[in-house]
Amino acid sequence: MDEQWLVRERQTYPPAPALSLPSPYRASPGGEEARTAVRVKFKIDWYLVLIILMAVAASVIPARGETAFWLGWASKVLIGIVFFLHGARLSREAVLRGATHWRLHLLILGATFVLFPALCVGIAHLPAWITPPELASGIVLLGCLPSTIQSSIAFVGVARGNVPAAVASASASNMIGVFLTPVLASVLMHAKGAVSAGSFWAIVLQLLAPFVAGQLLRPWIGGFVARHSKTLGKLDRGTILLIVYVAFSGAVVEGVWDRLGALDLVRLLVLCLALLGVVLLVTMLAARALGFDKADEIAIVFCGSKKSLASGAPIAAALLSPAVAGVAMIPLMIFHQIQLMACAAIAQRYAQRPDTDTASG
């Protein structure tokens, strides 16, 4: 793959905050020097800390009445802007360039949009003493989300995997997820009474229409978006913080903490750990059974096991009422941190393997 194109794709997205990475994302070949260069340094994800603080703030001083109304409208407008920017960022060229590696991409998409939803629906239907009923809808939503972009590519690079394939697959996952995730979530969560038929127009107006507009305008504004990725990334993150505050405010006003206790959160933590462990194991075994080399296996494992907080929070806010969305975000917030911690350790282990294979692409 053309290295200049790969650098341009990398510049389109702000760096993942929880990693200290070598540059570029591809590890340099060669013995002990390469293994030293690709050490993973896991740090506190301060952005996740801010998200948790917003949930705490909403628990202490929730938005009510007219304040909640106007903040809700502000979040709706900002969600539209964020998905417009997603459309302007996501490169169709990245997806098309990776189309020749279709077996790898089908396996990753299968893990993201088939395996994950099936497992999460199964978890949601476990007995109440295992899965807290209040969190069941959030677990289903988690399973329907697309993969991450930044951290997937970053972990694959650190682990000395197939970075071009990771770029193409993560881009395809998010492009398809804009359309498929709301449909999956609507169908699966409607069965649990969490989504109303009126959510269709929220999906069209807040998610799909802005995304399509961004994609159509990408030839003219894509360069501007890439050059100002850091500034626009702050808008993305600020929007998610507002969404979390508004959603948790609605949940608190409806008495969420009267229905959820510390033991429920501990059970959720165990369920998220088990979910991630199963997906990591299945993707690894499937990659090996189908004859993929180690570099492709790394791309499959890391791209197929992630769920996007950046997509999940806006989709929850568009699909669900604030009272329901606030609770639905709890599984995603916990899973997000677990996946960063676990994959950082796994990437380091992959990176320390002997130099007997090279990334395909």
Tell me what you see in this structure.
With 361 residues, this protein is an all-alpha fold. It has one domain (52-351): Na+/H+ antiporter like fold (Up-down Bundle). Helix content is 75%, strand content 0%. The chain contains 16 helices and no strands. It has helices at 3-11, 31-37, 46-60, 65-89, 92-97, 102-124, 136-144, 150-158, 163-190, 199-227, 229-253, 256-259, 262-289, 294-304, 309-319, 322-351. The longest helix is centred in the C-terminal third of the chain and has 30 residues, at 322-351. The termini are close together. The relative contact order is 0.19. The model is unreliable at 1-40 (pLDDT under 50).
Ordered list of secondary-structure elements with their pairings:
Elements: H1 3-11, H2 31-37, H3 46-60, H4 65-89, H5 92-97, H6 102-124, H7 136-144, H8 150-158, H9 163-190, H10 199-227, H11 229-253, H12 256-259, H13 262-289, H14 294-304, H15 309-319, H16 322-351
Helix pairs in contact: 3-11, 4-10, 4-11, 6-7, 6-9, 6-13, 6-14, 7-9, 7-16, 8-9, 8-14, 8-16, 9-10, 9-14, 10-15, 11-15, 11-16, 13-14, 13-16, 15-16
